[in-house]
Amino acid sequence: MKQSRIAPWIGVIFGAIYFLVPLIATFEFSLRMERGRYSFEAYRIVLGDPNFQASFGYSAFIAVCTIIVGVALVVPTAYVVQLKLPKLRPVIEFLTLLPLVIPAIVIVFGYLRMYNSSSWLPLTGSARGTDVLLTFSYVTLALPYMYRSVDTGLRAIDVRTLTEAAQSLGSSWPRILLTVILPNVRVAVLSGSFLTFAIVIGEFTMASLLNRPAFGPYLQLIGANRAYEPAALAIIAFAITWACMGLINLFGAMGQQTQRR
Amino acid sequence: MAFLSIEKLVKTFGTQTTVKGVDLAVERGEFVTLLGPSGCGKTTILRMVAGFETATSGTIRIDGKDVTDLKPNQRNIGMVFQAYALFPNMSVADNIAFGLKVAKKSSAEIAARVKEMLELIKLPQLGERYPYQLSGGQQQRVALARALAVKPQILLLDEPLSALDAKIRISLRDEIRAVQRSLGITTIFVTHDQEEALSMSDRICVMNEGHIEQLGTPFEVYNYPTTRFVASFVGTLNIVNGKVADSATGKLLVDGQEIVTSRSLNGASTGDALSLALRPEALTMGRANGLSNNLDGTIDEVHFLGSVVRIRVKFKDSAISLDTFNKPHLPPPERGQPVTVNFGREDILVLDGAPN
Ligand SMILES: Nc1ncnc2c1ncn2[C@@H]1O[C@H](COP(=O)(O)OP(=O)(O)O)[C@@H](O)[C@H]1O
Ligand SMILES: [Mg+2]
């Protein structure tokens, strides 16, 4: 009895040390910019850096665009698959998992071949075009998370009966999606969105290869050239990610309250 | 012409034919029940009327208009589902208002109609609640109000009570029927519960394996089943195997004992094997004289059900159940005791189809 309780605790403590020690060490280091005392000087410098603000703002904007495009793509797809094409589900699931299997660098080289300035759709020819391409590539990158999240949300409600109830009341397809389906998977869409946000904010490969002023390349640049600021940035990025996770949990709990049967 | 008319309706899923040529005419304001065991195609018929399934062949007409190929949102049909299909993200009032908003009614009109519907289902205070805050019975009443708010031409209910507790089920039965009567709305109700069907319907359509076995009033279907299936499915009916001893005089042999029926033998001739049905309430214990029939057997089982005692009597190769009222001063009979059962000549129903 006692034996069996000690083993899991050892696991937990080991995991905590594994994750927490580097985190605490980084945090501690980020406070040591001024000789001989702890201060938030490194954070002040980082947060006051116009490049930080610009790159973070850019990435946040792209993240929001990614979320909008992702939701518009995934919700109707998952809905139709669940309602009309359940046999296609394994195929769609496989497709949405591909971005986890194919390295981002492979995808982005593919994009560069397909959409370079001398191609049939020269997206990389202009900054706006490249932003669009970056957004779409982030949609791809976030697809596994967004699809899974929305699909789980859809499975939790009786999609077919709700759809038929709305249909028999005269409702059209777009109306059903917007007023019946989407509000009932709101929590799932939100958690997918926060995951997407966290992914986009930290992404480096695609932004860097497409040469856009995103937060990931900025992190890398600072990391290569400064001592204390990268530690502060790492902690800030970490806090943003955790804030996203916290929001997922918060909305998840709220959703359970309003959708209890 | 009937208000809702279904002609030669067929539905095939892959290789399996679920609905095999159903004809049904429902009059304006009538309450018709589709009654049958699970899997006999009741839901499929209802879904074709609602437009959720397309008919493989046949036609469906509402008020003379062919709707067979119309989309569900063009049919003006109210539907209540077995599972609570209320929109979880909307309040009770918003659920009821949904169809009215789709129809672009003015907000004053919607508010008035929602209030009217809430009063109709006797939940005037609950407009602001959310579905998860309601009991199952309340949810089904809201579902009914939501379906009726848009003044549909036809109301379809697919086992709306089967997920509820027994008590609520019975009170809601009466309530649904009362609402249906007060609005005079043409209604098709689906159930596998014969008691529900008998107590609610104007007419019952008994179904089996994708076709209609019998269509008639509850009285007709219960008292005059035309097939063995109907006889066994509607009510607790005793079916015994008999043999025609003399087709001219209606003499039959059950278990080697002679009985006489005053009903038609459905064209059977002397020597034919037949299925005979006897309702438990038509049977009495004891020997009767005159024109009654008597059968001797032994008591096999005694079920004390409260006000009624159901007794099973065994013959050589068949058994029947009969009901007696509980009499506190008279203890029920015991197993193994010999007993005589009597019943009238007109109580014997001769069923189509040979005995198994
Ligand atoms: N969409 C469908 N695809 C394949 N088979 C179906 C479908 N819907 C119903 N069936 C089959 O049709 C038969 C009758 O179903 P249903 O109409 O639901 O019966 P009931 O409502 O009387 O219980 C069942 O055997 C069921 O498996
Ligand atoms: Mg059914």
UniProtKB/TrEMBL annotation, chain A:
Topology term for the membrane: Multi-pass membrane protein
Residue span(s) of domain ABC transmembrane type-1: 56-248
Domain of life (superkingdom): Bacteria
Subcellular location field: Cell inner membrane; Cell membrane
Transmembrane segments annotated in the record for this chain: 7-27, 56-79, 91-112, 132-150, 187-210, 230-251
Coiled coil location: none
UniProt cross-references to Pfam families, sorted A to Z: BPD_transp_1 (PF00528)
InterPro entries with a match to the protein in the record: MetI-like, MetI-like_sf
CDD domains per record: TM_PBP2
Name by which UniProt lists this protein: Spermidine/putrescine transport system permease protein
TrEMBL record, chain B:
Domain of life: Bacteria
Record-linked SUPFAM superfamilies: MOP-like, P-loop containing nucleoside triphosphate hydrolases
Catalysed reactions, semicolon-separated: ATP + H2O + polyamine-[polyamine-binding protein]Side 1 = ADP + phosphate + polyamineSide 2 + [polyamine-binding protein]Side 1
Pfam family, one: TOBE_2
EC number: 7.6.2.11
Keywords linked to the UniProt accession: ATP-binding, Cell membrane, Membrane, Nucleotide-binding, Translocase, Transport
EC top class named in words: translocase
GO molecular function: ATP binding
InterPro entries found in the cross-reference section: AAA+_ATPase (IPR003593), ABC_SmlMolc_Importer (IPR050093), ABC_transporter-like_ATP-bd (IPR003439), ABC_transporter-like_CS (IPR017871), Mo/tungstate-bd_C_term_dom (IPR008995), NA-bd_OB-fold (IPR012340), P-loop_NTPase (IPR027417), PotA-like (IPR005893)
Keyword tRNA processing appears in the UniProt entry: no
Entries under PROSITE patterns matching the protein: ABC_TRANSPORTER_1, ABC_TRANSPORTER_2
The ABC transporter domain, residue ranges: 4-234
Function field: Part of the ABC transporter complex PotABCD involved in spermidine/putrescine import. Responsible for energy coupling to the transport system.
Family membership: Belongs to the ABC transporter superfamily. Spermidine/putrescine importer (TC 3.A.1.11.1) family.
UniProt subunit comment: The complex is composed of two ATP-binding proteins (PotA), two transmembrane proteins (PotB and PotC) and a solute-binding protein (PotD).
Entries under NCBIfam families matching the protein: potA (TIGR01187)
Name of the protein this chain belongs to: Spermidine/putrescine import ATP-binding protein PotA
Species of provenance: Kaistia dalseonensis
Lineage of producing organism: Bacteria, Pseudomonadati, Pseudomonadota, Alphaproteobacteria, Hyphomicrobiales
